[in-house]
Amino acid sequence: MLCAAGLKLELELSLLTVILGHGVFGLPVAFGPILTRLSQFPRSLEEAAYDLGAKPSEVFRDVLFPYLRSALIAGALLAFTLSFDEVVVTIFLTGRENTLPMEIWSRLRIDITPEIAAVATLVLLGSGGVVLLSQQLGGTE
């Protein structure tokens, strides 16, 4: 797409290209819950903060960010989950280094070993822990 626009990036395949690729892939997914939450933001809260003498940075920190926090966490979790599952994108963007999903995938193709089962269990526990933490931080809304 960049080449069609006349832009050519001279990037070698590396961890940087994997991060950039997954970032471009995950941003639209993350923006879904964020924009939905932002569209429901009551502007009266922002106006009240300004009327009480808050600066724009204080309005963002004390009013807007707490309101968007749960949507930001949800968007980040969605983007991470989809990115973790996209082995194909990683195959095309990785250089010599292996990412965790690539390492799991390459070892699963040979044989299922206890190490792979342990890593998969740790990934599941870590993901579950992040979900529980996000529910605790987000509260009930």
UniProtKB/TrEMBL annotation:
<dbReference type="GO" id="GO:0005886">
    <property type="term" value="C:plasma membrane"/>
</dbReference>
<feature type="domain" description="ABC transmembrane type-1">
    <location>
        <begin position="1"/>
        <end position="134"/>
    </location>
</feature>
<keyword id="KW-0472">Membrane</keyword>
<keyword id="KW-0813">Transport</keyword>
<dbReference type="GO" id="GO:0055085">
    <property type="term" value="P:transmembrane transport"/>
</dbReference>
<comment type="similarity">
    <text>Belongs to the binding-protein-dependent transport system permease family. CysTW subfamily.</text>
</comment>
<feature type="transmembrane region" description="Helical">
    <location>
        <begin position="116"/>
        <end position="137"/>
    </location>
</feature>
<dbReference type="InterPro" id="IPR000515">
    <property type="entry name" value="MetI-like"/>
</dbReference>
<dbReference type="InterPro" id="IPR035906">
    <property type="entry name" value="MetI-like_sf"/>
</dbReference>
<dbReference type="Pfam" id="PF00528">
    <property type="entry name" value="BPD_transp_1"/>
</dbReference>
<keyword id="KW-0812">Transmembrane</keyword>
<dbReference type="InterPro" id="IPR051789">
    <property type="entry name" value="Bact_Polyamine_Transport"/>
</dbReference>
<feature type="transmembrane region" description="Helical">
    <location>
        <begin position="12"/>
        <end position="35"/>
    </location>
</feature>
<keyword id="KW-1003">Cell membrane</keyword>
<protein>
    <submittedName>
        <fullName>ABC transporter permease subunit</fullName>
    </submittedName>
</protein>
<feature type="transmembrane region" description="Helical">
    <location>
        <begin position="71"/>
        <end position="95"/>
    </location>
</feature>
<keyword id="KW-1133">Transmembrane helix</keyword>
